[in-house]
Amino acid sequence: MEILALSGVSKSFPGVKALDDVRLSLRAGEVMALVGENGAGKSTLVKILTGIEKPDAGEILIDGAPVDFGSPFDAWRAGITAIHQETVMFDDLTVAENIHMGHHPTLGRGPFRRFVDWRAMRAHTSAVLARLEVNISPDTVLRELTVAQKHIVGIAKALSHDSRIVIMDEPTAALSQHEIGELYKIVAQLKAAGKAVLFISHKFDELFAIADRWTVLRDGRFIGAGTIGDVTRDELVTMMVGRRLDQVFPKVTVPIGETVLEVEDLSHPTEFDGISFKLGRGEILGFYGLVGAGRSEAMQALFGITRPSRGRVRIAGREITVRNPSDAIRAGIAYVPEDRQIQGAILPMSITENITLPMVDRVNGGPVLRPKRERALARRFGERLAVKATHWDQPVANLSGGNQQKVLIAKWLATDPAVIILDEPTKGIDVGSKAAVHEFMGELVKSGLAVILVSSELPEILGMSDNIIVMHEGRIRRRFRRAEATAEAVVTAATGGA
Asked: Cβ distance 313 to 262 under 8 Å?
């Protein structure tokens, strides 16, 4: 049974046609995968469905009747809820308080309904969590939960008023493989309960694992829709970005030159032990491992974010001491972190300010800021990475995920490093932006840089690396040359197998 249908939906913003004649349908007991690049119009469509934006044209039908959402509350009353990648909740409130924020049960009647019914709120919270088959106390303060548990609380919040349509926007971005499996079970429960689920993800494995149907948007337009069993991964990629899957990993073969970075016995009391490797000029060295393997932690120690207990690091044969990131930058090491919104970019600041931040003293040449110099540098590296923005003073918060990532890479390239560490460089960005990042990695090694690629996406590691190091429980488990690396062998090593 079709619960929701959109037809002819269009939406424009100043200078941008975000949606143009888009259609979509959601059915009870089904998962619809909404697929598209960053900038394809997915976020705008979600905002229209949740009452944040009003369409300029088109029609929204629920159970065959037209609806007009004047506010998010109207969409909420109609049974539509959204679970976003970055769910806004309150760490210092309890699980029950977060789930019922904005719709607390109250005591009394009429004008006397002014006191929170704490007993009813806890009981309802317990019932919702029981439906999800999770063991979390309603009285637990949110900050005491893991990332995965917070996501579950976000789902419980969405279901606390018995939604009929559940929108999940990149819900697995911060979850481990085990936690993703638990989320799949929750999605199956929603389907069994007759809910319609709109699932947005850049991970094709997820889409093929749980979706029943698919809809593709590109440049704000409807491209196609169908049953998930009748489409291939290659066909979806072609519809999304107009290019084949083999063009997403455009590996450039560059002769590996002299050793640029040498790490010997790098260790940390709790995170990793005995990490040793060499990295040559023009080489892409892939680091692969499951959650908790210690890959990112080792890279953060190299960059001076954390202090190792022992180990030696040499750049171009010269031993260096890295006490903090400033030491690493001066030595020629750059680090693009996994969490671009927390550790990487300063979102309220402009593109120019973000790109020039690590070398603001060198750009300005003294205590007085020189905006023209800063803007020229930002333009040079922003254009080099094809950052899509209206102007270079635009806040990074207003950019898509893919363009935020490009700003981060531009920021560290501007420091003129010898070694650049890319930690999950394509996490949470679309296929087209991934291809652009991969193409630029090829340009980096062709220009003589040495690249360390840390990724949990196996196709990316296999497709882009010259050599691969696999970590397991804080140690190097195995090393592979590109020609000998297979998906089975790499995953076996990552799980601790022989």
From this structure: yes
Range 53-59 contact pairs with CB under 8 angstroms and sequence separation of 24 or more = 53/11, 55/9, 55/10, 55/11, 55/19, 56/10, 56/11, 56/12, 57/8, 57/9, 57/10, 58/6, 58/7, 58/8, 58/9, 58/10, 58/21, 58/22, 59/6, 59/7, 59/8, 59/9
Residue 81 CB neighbour total at 10 angstroms: 24
Residues 447-470 pLDDT 10s: 889 999 999 878 889 889 999 999
Domain membership of residue 192 (yes or no) is yes
Say what angle helices 431-446 and 401-413 make with each other, to 10 degrees.
10
Residue located via tokens 């799980």: 495
Predicted confidence band of residue 177 (pLDDT cuts 50, 70, 90): low
If we measure between CA atoms, which residue out of 184, 96, 179 comes closest to residue 140?
96
Report the C-alpha gap between 389 and 400 in whole angstroms: 9
Tracing tokens 């094709």 back to the chain, one arrives at: 204
Number of domains in the chain: 2
Q: What is the CATH number of the domain that holds 354?
A: 3.40.50.300
How confident is the prediction for the chain on average, in pLDDT? Answer: 85
The length of the chain is 498
Pair of tokens at residue 443: 């340009």
- Pick the last residue of a domain from 212, 243, 274: 243
Q: Band of the pLDDT at 150, cuts 50, 70, 90?
A: confident
Q: Are residues 80 and 34 in the same domain?
A: yes
User: Which pLDDT does position 372 carry in this prediction?
Assistant: 76
pLDDT tens digits along 41-84: 888 999 999 999 999 999 999 999 999 999 988 998 898 988 87
Per the domain annotation, does 170 fall within a domain? yes
Distance CA 380, CA 162 (A): 51
Q: Using the predicted structure, report yes or no on whether residue 486 has a pLDDT greater than 80.
A: yes
Give the Cα separation of 325 and 303 in Å (integer). Answer: 5
Percentages helix, strand, coil for the chain (3-state, rounded to 5) are 40, 25, 35
Residue 380: predicted pLDDT = 80
Indicate whether 302 belongs to any domain.
Answer: yes
- Structural domain boundaries, residue 438: 259-494
Residue 159: strand, helix, or coil: helix
Please indicate, yes or no, whether residues 273 and 406 belong to a single structural domain of this protein.
Answer: yes
How many angstroms separate the CA atoms of 425 and 165, rounded? 32
Contact assessment for residue 442 and residue 252, using Cβ atoms and an 8 Å cutoff:
yes
If asked whether residues 32 and 132 sit together in one domain, one would say yes
Per-residue pLDDT band for 475 (boundaries 50, 70, 90) equals very high
Q: Classify residue 250: in a domain, yes or no.
A: no
